[in-house]
Specification:
166 residues, alpha/beta, Rossmann fold, 3-stranded parallel sheet, globular
């Protein structure tokens, strides 16, 4: 995981973008990953939030047999993850004059749910998407509100022996 975070940090730095902030889950794995990535992005502000913690966002459709959290988890986690979406995924302020770039370091279930919501796909389909550990997903939100998915779970910058998924 640490090697994957190192590779991800190098990749993000190589993009030449001026990142405004790194917003990360308060869970240990995401906090440690943020520390490794941020070494490659000096001066970028880091913000920790419980909203991005891993969880069960919504009951998947179609259902799966290998993962069955208790129903209460969907209510608790789902409300929190939806709050993360509403808090972080939106158009820039109308007064903003330059593009902004934010990095979110969190967990596959949260990312998959947010991608579905941002693209206005049925969010129940979140579990149909697969993400590798340390991967980069790139969402673009235009001033007019249009959303584009540039990459989903990109790990092309990692050697094949470093690519894993949980």
């Amino acid at each position: 995981g640490r090697e994957q975070a190192e590779l991800t940090g190098r990749r993000l730095a190589s993009l030449g973008l001026k990142f405004d902030q790194i917003i990360h889950s308060s869970m240990t794995r995401a906090t440690e990953t943020t520390e490794i990535i941020s070494k490659h992005l000096p001066g970028v502000k880091k913000i920790s939030t419980d909203l991005l913690r891993e969880g069960a966002p919504i009951e998947p459709d179609p259902p799966v047999s290998h993962w069955k959290p208790e129903a209460v988890q969907y209510y608790e986690d789902g409300a929190r993850i939806e709050a993360a979406f509403r808090n972080f995924i939106h158009r820039a302020d109308a007064k903003q004059e330059e593009d902004s770039y934010e990095i979110f370091v969190c967990h596959a279930n949260v990312i998959r749910y947010i991608v579905c919501r941002a693209l206005q796909f049925p969010p129940e389909g979140w579990l149909r998407l697969s993400l590798n550990n340390g991967s980069i997903t790139h969402l673009v939100i235009r001033p007019n509100g249009r959303v584009a998915l540039r990459t989903l779970g990109d790990t092309g910058f990692m050697p094949p022996d470093k690519i894993t998924r949980t």
